[in-house]
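G., the chain you wanted modeled:
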Amino acid sequence: MTEPCCYFASFVPFGRIKSIKIMKNIITYKSRGFGFISFTKHEDAKKAMLELNGKKILNKTIRVLWKQDNMTFNKNANVLISNLDNSVKQDDLNELCSNYGTILSSKIVVNEFDNTTSRAYVQYDSEEQAENCVNALNNLKFFDRILTACINSKQNKVAVIRGQLEKNLDGDVAEKLKERAFEVGRIINFSMDIHKESNSFIAFVEYDNRNCVKNLVNY
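Predicted structure as tokens:
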């Protein structure tokens, strides 16, 4: 069985398939690495997408999403979720985010400089669905970590602050940090997660202006 056929064979258990089309190079006739599958029932296609998206087949992670007429996505409907615990799986992410709309694509990425946390990108069908997700997930405790979420196209307006907690520090640490961050610009969202084991913290500050991020760094 050829490699492309192995990928598509994984979809057979989910329902009756109407058609399969493997996209190939017009000159070499080699697979271009993607294709299209049509099920006879929408429910079967949805289940296959939720079950197989992000799974490894032949040691390769595959992406499964709804076919779009022009295969372009609304960048303002793409949500960036930060501070995910590394134990969160693709199924966990999809189950959580599907409460707010139709997921066209989702992906989890392990943070390069912190192998204990991950971030995720979730593409929704509409901006309204993405905004609903952002409003619901911001400051939500999920797998013992406080999440922060924003529209991905606005990520350059988000400052990430990491640090160690000083011993015998009086008052609410999160509130003090928020007050300090507010001094350089208008804050849209603020979330902070304290890790007691390492006596450290990570905070996410979303401003209404990208210049505020630079100002905070140089503050």
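Helices lie at 3-9, 42-52, 90-97, 127-137, 173-182, 210-217.

Shout if anything looks off.
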